[in-house]
Write a structure and sequence with these properties.
33% of the residues lie in helices and 25% in strands. It is of the alpha/beta class and 326 residues long. The strands form 4 sheets. A 5-stranded mixed beta sheet has the order 1-7-6-4-5, with helices on both faces. The chain binds oxa(dethia)-CoA (UT7). Oxa(dethia)-CoA is lined by residues 29, 33-34, 37-38, 113, 152-153, 156-157, 191, 218-219, 221-222, 225, 255-256, 259, 283, 313-314.
Length: 326
C-alpha cells in the first residue's frame, strides 16, 4: 500500500557547547540541580551570525543526501519553528532560497515543541492528497535568542539545533502509519513568548511592561505533559491495533529526562526502548524529534521493521504522536 515514507534524515547542531559548569559562573544554579531535575548536562548555542534557516538548511542537505535526492526534487518545504529568522516571511522560504529548491512551496508551522509532528502530519496530508510528491519536513530552533539568560528556571533548559526528514509517497521502509494531534488553547498562558504582534505592537514600549522572553510555569507544564503524552501514545497505537509491547523505540520530544522517564513508566515501556539525548542538547523544541531520529538512525539503533513511536508536548498547549514502521 502507498503511504508517506521517511526516506532520509539529517541534523545540524551548532559547534559551541555550553556546559552546566559554565552556567554556574553566571547564575545561581549548579550542575547537580540541573542534572537531577532535567537530565541536561550541556546544550549547543548558535554562533553569532548563524540563523535558524542556516541550521535548517544544514539538516535538510543531510536528509536530501541520504535520500539520494536533489533540492529540485522537492515540492514542499515545511519548517516547524517558533524562533524563525524573522517574524515573516517564513523561515521555510529562506531555506527554499538557500537550497535552491525552486519547485517547492514553503511555509512554517508554529506548534512550539510539538511543531515537528504537526509539520509531519501536514506534509503527510499533502502527499496523500497528491498535492506534493516529496516533502522536506524540518524542525529548527534557536531558543538561546529568546530565553532570559538571567532566569535560571528557563535558560538552563533550552538549546539550539535542527533536524529534518525527507518524506515521499511510495511503498517500502519508513512508512508513516499515522499521526494524532491535539491542542488545548485554554492553557496558553502557562508557556509562551510575547514577542511582537497584535497584543504587543512593534515599537510601542509603553504598552508592554512585560519582558519579551519565554515564560513558563514549568511544574504545571510537567504534570499535563506526562498525562497527555502517554494518552496520545496509546491513542496512536490503538488506531493501528498495536500495543506498547509492539514498540521497538520511543523517540520523544526531549523536554526533560524526568518527563521522558515518567511517560515511559506510565506506558510500561522499558528505559532501553527510549531514545534520550536531552543530556547533550537540552530541549531544542521542534528540532528535538528529528535530531533524535537522525541519531537513532545513523547509530544503527533503528533497524528495518522496527516500530518507532514519536511523541511531543509543547506550548499552546499542543501535543501529538506518530508511528513509523522503519
Ligand atoms: O518542551 C515542552 C515544554 N516544557 C517542558 O516540558 C518543561 C516542563 N517542566 C520542567 O521540566 C520542570 O518543571 C523544570 C525543570 C522547569 C523545573 O523543575 P521542577 O522540579 O518543576 O522545579 P520547580 O520549578 O518546582 O522549582 C523548585 C525549586 C524552586 O525553589 P523554591 O521555590 O523551592 O525555593 C526554584 O526557584 O528550584 C528552584 N530552581 C532552581 N534552583 C537551582 C529553579 N530553577 C533552578 C535552577 N537552579 N536552574
Amino acid at each position: 500500500m502507498k503511504q508517506s515514507r521517511i526516506i532520509g534524515t539529517g541534523s545540524c547542531l551548532p559547534e559551541r557547547i555550553l556546559t552546566n559548569a559554565e552556567l554556574e559562573q553566571t547564575l545561581d544554579t549548579n550542575d547537580e540541580w540541573i542534572v537531577t531535575r532535567t537530565g541536561i548536562r550541556e546544550r549547543r548555542i548558535a554562533a553569532e551570525g548563524q540563523y535558524t534557516s542556516d541550521l535548517a538548511g544544514g539538516a535538510a542537505r543531510q536528509a536530501l543526501a541520504m535520500a539520494g535526492l536533489e533540492a529540485a526534487d522537492i515540492d514542499l518545504i515545511l519548517v516547524a519553528t517558533v524562533t524563525g529568522d524573522l517574524s515573516w516571511p517564513a523561515t521555510a522560504c529562506l531555506v527554499q532560497d538557500q537550497l535552491q529548491a525552486t519547485r517547492a512551496a514553503a511555509f512554517d508551522i508554529s506548534a512550539a515543541c510539538s511543531g515537528f509532528l504537526y509539520a509531519l502530519s501536514t506534509a503527510d496530508s499533502f502527499l496523500r492528497a497528491g498535492t506534493a510528491r516529496r516533502a522536506l519536513v524540518i524542525g529548527a530552533e534557536i531558543f538561546s535568542r529568546i530565553v532570559d539568560w538571567q532566569d535560571r528556571s528557563t535558560c538552563i533548559l533550552f538549546g539550539d539545533g535542527a533536524g529534518a526528514v525527507v518524506l515521499e509517497m511510495g511503498e517500502g521502509a519508513g512508512q508513516l502509519l499515522g499521526c494524532h494531534l491535539h491542542s488545548d488553547g485554554s492553557q496558553w498562558p502557562l508557556l509562551y513568548q510575547l514577542g511582537y504582534g497584535s497584543r504587543n505592537p512593534a515599537g510601542d514600549q509603553s504598552r508592554n511592561p512585560e519582558h519579551p522572553f519565554i515564560r513558563m510555569q514549568g511544574n504545571e507544564v510537567f504534570k499535563v505533559a506526562v498525562r497527555s503524552l502517554s494518552e496520545v501514545a496509546l491513542e496512536a497505537l490503538e488506531a493501528q491495533s498495536l500495543t506498547v509491547a509492539d514498540v521497538d523505540l520511543l523517540v520523544p520530544h526531549q523536554a526533560n529526562q524526568r518527563i521522558l522517564e515518567a511517560t515511559a513508566k506510565r506506558l510500561g515501556l522499558p528505559p532501553e526502548k527510549v531514545m534520550i539525548n536531552v543530556d547533550r542538547y537540552g530541549n531544542t523544541s521542534a528540532a528535538s524529534i528529528p535530531i533524535a531520529l537522525d541519531e537513532a538512525h545513523r547509530s544503527g539503533r533503528l533497524q528495518p521493521g522496527h516500530l518507532v513511536l514519536l511523541n511531543a508536548f509543547g506550548g499552546g498547549f499542543t501535543w501529538g504522536a506518530a508511528l513509523v514502521r522503519w
